[in-house]
Structures
1.
Amino acid sequence: MNHSEINQNIVVALDIVILTIKDNLLKVLLTKRTIEPYIHRYSLPGGIVDEKLSLDEAAKNILKRDTNISDAFLEQLYTFGDLNRDKRGRTISVAYYALIDYSKLNLIPSKKYDEIGWYSLSDIKKMKFAFDHDKIIQIALDRIKNKIEYTNIAFQLLPEKFTLAELQQIYETILETSIDKRNFRKKIAELDMVVELNEYKKMGRMRPAQYYKFKERTKETILKANKWV
Amino acid sequence: MNHSEINQNIVVALDIVILTIKDNLLKVLLTKRTIEPYIHRYSLPGGIVDEKLSLDEAAKNILKRDTNISDAFLEQLYTFGDLNRDKRGRTISVAYYALIDYSKLNLIPSKKYDEIGWYSLSDIKKMKFAFDHDKIIQIALDRIKNKIEYTNIAFQLLPEKFTLAELQQIYETILETSIDKRNFRKKIAELDMVVELNEYKKMGRMRPAQYYKFKERTKETILKANKWV
DNA sequence: CCAAAAGTGTTACAAGTACACCCATGA
DNA sequence: TCATGGGTGTACTTGTAACACTTTTGG
């Protein structure tokens, strides 16, 4: 079969679940659609894939376009390919998810959207979404909840310098549990992934908290060794 | 943007890494191409996605077409979207992987292929592949190696009745380790996922081995609880 | 009675969990 | 001096790993 003979009518879109933590809440970047279909519903940042870009490049471009961030953690999530996802015609969406440090953020409003903003999980429960974007978000949340357990991706949500309480808060927020402070610190020390700095965060009239930084900021690392079952 | 105005020239393909275990070796189903491009190289079963089928349906169809199996474990793996994957034009491939019980197998030879067959990991190392199919296989192997640790997917590689030695062999083959027999049996018993049968497998002049079956044959189950880090 | 794989428990070690008090600061 | 979050160690429980012998069968 020659490629030019293929008469396949599928549009390839790409959507990104961009996550951050602000005020101890996990938040998703969403836009409110101003055009049909699904006008006035919320949707993920995304677009049609430019055929001259690889999927990873296309994802980077969208992230840059909507957040002005170009070095975040960005990973493919899943490809959504049900029929009738999009009323306009057959469309599959390659979904990605990104984790960004809120302090690095610089939102770029787009003409296409009248609202672009961060919404917490409790906001999301009440909202109506375009396409299957609620499902995409749910799968992204499941993924990060799972992945934070055995990798160091929590890094991506923090600035260069952070306190151990801040790091712990990231875990608690994502896993929706509380963690014992002493056990947490013991484990982090064992993992040998952070270095203490000689700087302290002053917070009102409390004892200042020591700042730490990650040894390897960018690289995703598997922390847990495999056991056989 | 109206869908009909989109002039995007990307072909959506779908490839499946079909895995089984035979003679204590993990094997992949491959075909040798008889047409250009990549003539005489090995490739995964797959094809162009029919726009009238969802991705999951398309994957099922291909699995059925090439193995005549319709109830196997089949899960989306990853979507490969680099430029120049296919010399003929821009193509992305939504890859799936499947685990099947070799004893259920009934290969359907296709005109398109002059050889369709099972190849072990040691075979694969020496072979030349079409497209990026070597990369796809590697990612499927990584996935199953990881997933066998915390789910019951090993089920899918065994027939209804099996002995504990056979189950253990599946784990040993996939994880490429040896496991202590007593510890393995203890763990399997704790997981409460198998039931003993009053049937025994006779094997020459050795003591017969008791047959077991899985409690829930079809459902994928998460076996390991999440810890916080 | 021999060869071959099936089957079975206990001990030692590592990892995870639970838990309570002192410290440093600014108001 | 007091209120607040930062910072620390130890005992207990659970899970994992190491290890050797008896059983059943057919030839």
2.
Amino acid sequence: MDSEDYVELVLTCVERVPPARVTTYGAIAEAVGEVYGGGGPRQVGRVMSQHGGAVPWWRVVHADGSPPTCHDGTARQAYLAEGTPWRPSGRVDMDTAFWRPAPPATMAP
DNA sequence: AATATGACTGTCT
DNA sequence: AAGACAGCCATAT
């Protein structure tokens, strides 16, 4: 299991998140960590910072449902376009939109 | 090898 | 509600 694999697992989880749904760094870390062992929210964040441009990164939010970092304006547009439950507080409605990522199970037949 | 850093999270003030 | 503090884990210097 290489760090490259970890990246693939994380990106896969993000891609599995359906439209109008979001997940959190911690949830991804938990799902990926199940098959990878170790890992943590920070590692997920690191992966996103480097490879996030290749996936719908706006479907990955903080534990409180607020958008990741900059581009928060862009993220808001994406949520609006996808119909993601938006809260007037300026964050995603976690109770409705939260998606629990499924562990890719190492994807090794 | 030790220290610093980061797209994190939970708890306390 | 917003900021401070402390855990956590992999990389970079």
